[in-house]
Input
Amino acid sequence: MKNLTKQYEMAKRNANQFMQNGQIGAYFEALLEMNKYKRLMVAIVAN
Output
């Protein structure tokens, strides 16, 4: 869980950086990565 949280936060930082730089494609990819880690964390908590 701790590892997933770190990966989620890294993807969040990347998304913010990409948005500021105007890199729309990379921004959306980072958002998808954030969504993936968020779903995994929710699944772990639910079990």
User: Anything to note?
Assistant: The two ends are 12 Å apart (CA to CA). The chain has a mean pLDDT of 95.
